[in-house]
Q: What sequence folds into this?
């Protein structure tokens, strides 16, 4: 197996992985989407809401807000408090605002400053003169498989594109260059070249326009894997956590097998 990092940033991670099967990379993708726990608003208690937006609409909006997720919190199901309401397994975000104003995510006070909205400018509710809102949003760890609110990232992969060009097949490449919707084909010194193979979506439009000269396929043993974090944590941490989850499952499985 070979791994090569192609891009690494605060929210995006892109790498090549080769020598593995589609089932293997798909298990990582699915684990990221469904089984890496992150913090999200789980419940909202309203003390006051005179705005034109209903409690449910505001609660739904808060639930979808990505929050920074530090290490150390317990899942409500694993906490001794059994209610998901102590400081080991929950965080309170409180909002108190009076119109005229637009209350934003960043206006909420967190009981743990390490758990905060990723986008503080995101509007929560618009309040007109005399309208008030007072609420407590209860944040807990959860899983993407239970609700998309807890999905830490978008994870995807594709086969590494293989674009074979017969340079002797033609002299005029304009038709082929124009066919590519990603604009990654160019002519250099009379030859057709691919400027950025990773951008190829395997749509095969170029091969359809120039079947005499171009063949496009995906290499089923090499993948481009991409993780786009919601901002809840870094994409490397999401990837590492997904691998921990998979490892734990394998350990449990092998313990079960030992007992046979
Ligand atoms: Zn607790």
A:
């Amino acid at each position: 197996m070979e791994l090569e990092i192609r891009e690494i940033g605060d929210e995006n991670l892109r790498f090549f992985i080769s020598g593995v099967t589609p089932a293997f990379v798909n298990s990582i993708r699915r684990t990221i989407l469904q089984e890496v726990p992150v913090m999200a608003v789980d419940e909202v208690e309203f003390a006051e809401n005179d705005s034109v937006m209903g409690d449910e609409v505001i609660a739904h909006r808060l639930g979808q807000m990505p929050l920074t997720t530090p290490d150390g919190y317990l899942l409500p199901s694993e906490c001794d408090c059994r209610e998901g309401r102590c400081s080991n397994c929950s965080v309170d975000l409180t909002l108190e605002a009076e119109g005229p104003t637009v209350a934003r995510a960043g206006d909420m006070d967190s009981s743990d400053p390490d758990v905060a909205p990723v986008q503080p400018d995101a509007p929560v509710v618009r309040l007109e003169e005399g309208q008030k809102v007072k609420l407590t949003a209860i944040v807990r760890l959860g899983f993407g498989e239970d609700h998309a609110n807890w999905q830490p990232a978008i994870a995807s992969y594709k086969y590494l594109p293989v674009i074979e060009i017969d340079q002797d097949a033609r002299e005029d490449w304009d038709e082929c260059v124009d066919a590519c919707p990603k604009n990654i084909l160019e002519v250099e010194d009379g030859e057709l070249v691919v400027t950025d193979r990773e951008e190829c979506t395997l749509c095969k439009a170029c091969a359809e326009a120039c079947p005499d000269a171009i063949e496009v396929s995906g290499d089923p043993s090499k993948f481009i894997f991409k993780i786009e974090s919601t901002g809840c944590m870094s994409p490397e941490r999401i990837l590492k956590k997904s691998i921990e989850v998979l490892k734990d499952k394998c350990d449990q499985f092998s313990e079960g097998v030992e007992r046979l």
About this structure: The mean pLDDT is 95. The domain at 2-34+154-226 is CATH 3.30.1360.10 (Gyrase A; domain 2). The CA atoms of residues 74 and 89 lie 5 Å apart. The pocket of zinc ion is lined by residues 79, 81, 84, 86, 88-89 (CB under 6 Å).
